[in-house]
Structure to design on (396 residues):
DNA sequence: CCGGTTCTGGTCCGAACGTTCCACAAACCG
DNA sequence: CGGTTTGTGGAACGTTCGGACCAGAACCGG
């Protein structure tokens, strides 16, 4: 009952995500959000309680698609464990390269947030922690699968190796923002895999 | 001639660096800078033209000590090439762990800036680019030394490998901010080295 | 077609922002 | 010791910030 919304909430969140992604939480004003979403301040505050709440929604939206895609790649049991990880790093490098190629890139929203907002916003930190755990879990099982099928070196501890790959992914993402081109990013991914080889 | 300054400029820059490091450019107000440096707004603006200029000075100060230390480790020709890189990653992991242990860490100022301010401030981007080139050069020579003395696998291209290590370093730094503890960070560093082994 | 409920556009708010300005304090030079 | 130069404290600038508010528009069930 009452007047219906003149916008699609998910669509608004996506638009907001792009702004936060590009400018960061501190660098984004409510005016920026109005401009990007097409919504008036009132509608924004009526729908999402505050700038921070909208940021959390935006971050969650990003995390969902990004980590879902990652888990999908890592759970593909038609491939050997190492091959899945190789495919994952290849996707990451490609994604970083593409993000970079179109305009002065904004890198990865999760990494950007980890290195800025997370330190001062507990709610953001908690969301990132949960996502990190999910990524670590998916990586751990892929490493275990790799050790079982003989593609991953038996000395590689699943937990430590999962962290290594998480770290490599962040590294590739930052390298993309540091000016590394596609071929460089792909070579980083290839080199990183060498550490896991059986 | 004229009244002398009541403060040490380098010391002020260091204080400013710590604030920018912790809160980022956007998150730092001129009031924060006054509080941290003990200087009045007037003295701040009289000495450094603007907030951005002070930020550049702060970043330069950080880069100098950080990259000098890195180059020193990498140029130690009493060790084999791979050993130098191992020592470097060990220092980075230790540094990340220490930064993390004292308060909710602020990670690495260079990484934080790369993932936020660099995209929108050309002067900052130029400074980071120059520093990255210096780090890449030092790494390249260490890799070359390692190939010559047989400690680094001959298939490892110096340029690509230098980028790989730069990327691993960023990754370790981000991992530190993602909640990885000392032992995890050290294990990441050890795993990363495995990719280079002869 | 009307009462109720929700959404929307615009305005307004106090606070904080980066920066400028000015009156005065403090030192050096002659 | 007077004049010049430079640094300092603090107030003030206009702007922008995140957020609150309200009058009216748009739709609902009856």
């Amino acid at each position: 009952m009452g007047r219906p919304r003149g916008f699609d909430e998910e669509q608004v969140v996506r638009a907001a995500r792009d702004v936060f992604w590009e400018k960061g939480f501190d660098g984004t004003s409510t005016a920026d959000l109005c401009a990007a979403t097409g919504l008036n301040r009132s509608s924004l505050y009526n729908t999402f309680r505050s700038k921070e709440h909208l940021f959390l929604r935006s971050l969650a939206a990003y995390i969902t698609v990004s980590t879902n895609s990652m888990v999908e790649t890592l759970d593909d049991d038609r491939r050997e464990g190492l091959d899945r990880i190789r495919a994952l790093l290849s996707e990451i490098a490609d994604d970083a390269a593409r993000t970079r190629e179109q305009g002065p890139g904004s890198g990865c929203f999760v990494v950007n947030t980890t290195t800025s907002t997370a330190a001062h916003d507990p709610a953001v930190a908690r969301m990132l922690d949960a996502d990190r755990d999910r990524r670590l879990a998916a990586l751990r099982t892929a490493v275990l699968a790799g050790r079982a099928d003989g593609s991953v070196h038996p000395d590689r501890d699943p937990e430590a190796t999962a962290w290594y790959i998480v770290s490599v992914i962040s590294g590739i993402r930052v390298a993309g923002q540091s000016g590394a081109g596609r071929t460089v990013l792909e070579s980083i991914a290839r080199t990183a895999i060498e550490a896991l080889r059986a």
